[in-house]
Prior knowledge:
Two copies of one chain form a homodimer. By secondary structure, chain A is α+β, with helices and mostly antiparallel strands. Helices cover 54% and strands 10% of the residues of chain A. The first copy, chain A, is built from 24 helices and 16 strands. The longest helix of chain A has 33 residues, at 340-372. At the A-B interface, strand 8, helix 9, helix 10, helix 11 and helix 16 of A face strand 8, helix 9, helix 10, helix 11 and helix 16 of B. Strand 8 of chain A pairs parallel with strand 16 of chain B, so a sheet runs across the interface.
Amino acid sequence: MTQVxxxxxxxxxxxxxxxxxxLGEQLLGRWASVRRQARDLAARPELHxxxxxxxxxxxxxxxxxxxxxxxxxxxxxxxxxxxxxxxxHGGNIAGFEELVVADPSLxxxxxxxxxxxxxAVMHLGTGEHHKQWLPGIMSLEIPGCFAMTETGHGSDVAxxxxxxTYLPETEEFVVHSPFRAAWKDYIGNAAIDxxxxxxxxxxxxxxxxxxxxxxxxxxxxxxxxxxxPGIGGEDDGVKxxxxxxxxxxxxxxxxxxxxxxxxxxxxxxxxxxTYSSPxxxxxxxxxxxxxxxxxxxxxxxxxxxxxxxxxxxxAIQYAAERRQFNASSHTDEEVLLDYQRHQRRxxxxxxxxxxxxxxxxQLLQKFDDVFSGAADTDxxxxxxxxxxxxxxxxxxxxxxxxxxxxxxxxxxxxxxIENRFASLRADxxxxxxxxxxxxxxxxxxxxxxxxxxxxxFRSVDFGVLARYVVGQATGVALHxxxxxxxAQFMADxxxxxxxxxxxxxxxxxxxxxxxxxxxxxxxxxxxxKGSHRxxxxxxxxxxxxxxxxxxxxxxxxxxxxxxxxxxEALAGVADPGTKRVLTWLRDLFGLSLIEKNLSWYLMNxxxxxxxxxxxxxxxxxxxxxxxxxALDLVDAFGYGDxxxxxxxxxxxxxxRQDEARAHFRSQRASGQAPxxxxxxxARTAAxxxx
Amino acid sequence: MTQVxxxxxxxxxxxxxxxxxxLGEQLLGRWASVRRQARDLAARPELHxxxxxxxxxxxxxxxxxxxxxxxxxxxxxxxxxxxxxxxxHGGNIAGFEELVVADPSLxxxxxxxxxxxxxAVMHLGTGEHHKQWLPGIMSLEIPGCFAMTETGHGSDVAxxxxxxTYLPETEEFVVHSPFRAAWKDYIGNAAIDxxxxxxxxxxxxxxxxxxxxxxxxxxxxxxxxxxxPGIGGEDDGVKxxxxxxxxxxxxxxxxxxxxxxxxxxxxxxxxxxTYSSPxxxxxxxxxxxxxxxxxxxxxxxxxxxxxxxxxxxxAIQYAAERRQFNASSHTDEEVLLDYQRHQRRxxxxxxxxxxxxxxxxQLLQKFDDVFSGAADTDxxxxxxxxxxxxxxxxxxxxxxxxxxxxxxxxxxxxxxIENRFASLRADxxxxxxxxxxxxxxxxxxxxxxxxxxxxxFRSVDFGVLARYVVGQATGVALHxxxxxxxAQFMADxxxxxxxxxxxxxxxxxxxxxxxxxxxxxxxxxxxxKGSHRxxxxxxxxxxxxxxxxxxxxxxxxxxxxxxxxxxEALAGVADPGTKRVLTWLRDLFGLSLIEKNLSWYLMNxxxxxxxxxxxxxxxxxxxxxxxxxALDLVDAFGYGDxxxxxxxxxxxxxxRQDEARAHFRSQRASGQAPxxxxxxxARTAAxxxx
Lengths: 690, 690
């Protein structure tokens, strides 16, 4: 903490200062150099979204931009080094995420080509497949589709109805869509560009359905662009956003493909039709094959954080300049950012963005550990799945909320496309339901929490419980299988009483947040106890009666993960001024969570009425403390004009105010300023009195 | 309540039934016939939004649609009967609101032409103005602008900087924009179509500024479409939505207009420059002139409700059909609408939509009373302003929230433009900040609440307070100046204790909701006591420290108004089955409000911990009760296919499922169905055991 010049008023103060550069470096994280390269690309006009294009023009532009990415070596990091890649999985995702600030359609279309289509060939295929197709996929000679989702089945992939039936006579598979609901739907690259697809279908051979497998299927004649025989489709048309991507539907009518087009890493069919797999359990095999999908969720999590950062930079910059200046006010009035409500609207979201960013960095590291093979057990993969399923819903919903609040905080100007909030929000909208619907993902997390809880307490005795409570009371964050441990709540444990004493204390926040997750899981677990002994229908009905609280518990768990990530990141901050300001921001995040769920803490006796009433007041005090550092905190995100590209965040507002001020000053000096009628009336009234 | 056939399963039950037709009639309200005419128009393809058009094409289409409205006599209801209108102010708004379901751009562009531009000439001008311009405005021969907002001033109209300075020599006003921040901004019809404008400017004559007045200014040559000398502008370009409207900027460089172009109903300038006005107080004069603006807020409130209704009809219809059907399930699984979380997401918003709809009908009646002259005192006008300022923020935010939740509840399909949620949401986004920013409007409401509170207790004695409490305890809703009365809270009053006993009781809900508003206003009032004796700066700072709670109090007040409107509407329901179901829905609305603010009720001792824990449970029970009536409740909105126009709400989903089911049935019957590998493994394992 040093004496610093306050950037608002030039007055020296004892305020702590944020070391913007060092904080920016920390935010860039482990893949800082990749992010810098990707941001350099994302700042180039060639990659920027042209607003107002019809969807046909937007699609053409993004297709061209994909070639630009290839030419600039931006998209091959995850591929094998033997083929010109870098075997760098974490870096690959980091680079993709940053593209969102150029155009979310570009990020997602690149994700379809290399992250889904190419990745499926790489991870589900074997040597020959790699040799045959990866070079063309990498170079964009083969634009392709990831044809999994069907009209009749969104998130329930195991139930897709497309079949691939083996014919030993000709050593071919017959790919077939048996009815309309089995059409592949919402498939990127399907409407126009896709020459081939990885098609997910039920593999049937010798009368047995071996479940969902992936097949490489040529779709279109590369010369004419026409569908090949037996293949048809429809254009999904205009969407609420991401209109640079040609989503479409695909259907297959007895389409024959060679036996060797089965991507056979996890399941193969011999020429005579015999099925074999290195994974005996069909369930585990399915889970393994779908595991490669997790990278989509990871990159959406990161992209959502990036979009939130850009929006907050623009809105906070503008709010720090905009004032309702008028002719009669000789002194400057407050800027928008000085208003308490405005601070509430923007700073709480700034705090959440920091938390989500730190949590994303942890997710990305875990992803890299698994995909690089550094830590690649079944348990690691499950933990990664659960972590991504917990964080992606929160960050994508947060991005939509932040973009909307920033847009409203900038008034009508926020709605102009030149200021980008509305454009980014429209494009990111679907992030909440694709690559796993957010609500469905949170249910997966809830089921995992319940399973962990059940496993832990299968053979429970008092000694174990006692150790649990001690573990918490001393503030030790217990980890198991990548999740914060859940345990039975003890209402009278010391940690909670402590929480009631000082809300701003780190351990108190942790105790309150952890306790809520544990208690919610334990209570739901107790309510569902014995449900496996019920009939399918009754069990489902019991589960349904607790669905809402289960999802709330999963959300509470994910919020705790974000809070823990923020707190762990604080430990890595060296500069004391930065640390102090970031601690306020972390406290704001923690207390906002507690405020949001205050009724729970009160109803369950975790906070007293008196203590509850202090939460809002303390948040208001934190807003005032953070105010002088708000610009530093958004500058540390490291996004420049080429990324923010919002007309209102360029200083234009301040220039207009300076001009207006100069006008009124010169008018007053000239003596030509008209007298206000109200002033005149007051003078007349005063004269009458005398 | 009669024995009815449950539409889901055809089984007779003792469930109450909703009389859809009678409820639909009640929802249409006082202006039912106008709404029917307008809906007939809105269902015509000529008026529908063509999705995916670039903004230039969309603008041209909407311009043409305005002519269609003129030809079909849809937009002249508010104009004088002498000129071919109907002098029907309430009916006029009712008709406009319904246009939102055809295309929100059409609603707003029509609102600019006739509701703002034409209305300003009518309400602010006098006989000669009406004769000269209204016929051309009505016929669309003169497309025009309402040029009030400036870049430098959004909601603060009193501070606009454009001047109109009177020159007695030539009997002209000189209209001038002195600097960039004084440009008119975000003006509908300004970029392309506007031939004239009502320009708001500071009226300066004989060296005195008489404040904001309205002037009729020709903008463009009607033949060439070029700006007239001294006038310039810019196109606002693409926006986040409403791209059928050509918003733009306008600036004036010493533009001379005849003296008689001053719309002089509330202020006039004689040839020699002498100013006169029928309203002595400049403040009251300003308020009166701006009063005509309220109709914009009223119609946005109604349009937001209409859009919410259409969205809920589509999403609930789809959720009642969609199931995750798969080959192995021989019985039908639950549809989405049977899931607790899905019910929470949609039914709570359905309840709020009913409440907002009933509240809107009251607002529209009050509007008609004022504008027809039936009840047109200053106090009536102020009440109308406050009521509109309270309801418009809630309904417009609610529409955005509902459209988004419906879109997510329909998954990726909800994001396709063919299902309209994303399109409507984009168009309605700006409703939250135009015609008065929602946050600013709620602050106006809060100030009014504080003023009423201060006036009531200026000379307070114990007897008055006692009467207040008695008034509440007996459930009498006290009205004064159109607002529910605020009074000091007495924690131990009988009404609150009663509330803790039975949350589903109407009087208990009223007591809890009313008490919260009263207490919040009283507490803030106490905190701000004496602020008028502070310096301007210190007073502002004190106010700012309570800004957040003030806005929360205004919101609580508006929610109470919605709850009261719903409750009053219940009294008008004759059919007992309908009344019972609607009472559940009203309870769901009331309890959702209490749940949202549960921490307040707990912290302030209004609800016990035990009672608090029952709120969520009771909401869950209400969801189950409402489930069988959900389709009836959205059908009662009375919107047909031509209004909903969502591909997923046409029964297509059910048809696809029937086809898939028939396929699997015939496959099983033929004996050709492949055996599932999992089934095979289970059989093998069983065989080994034997």
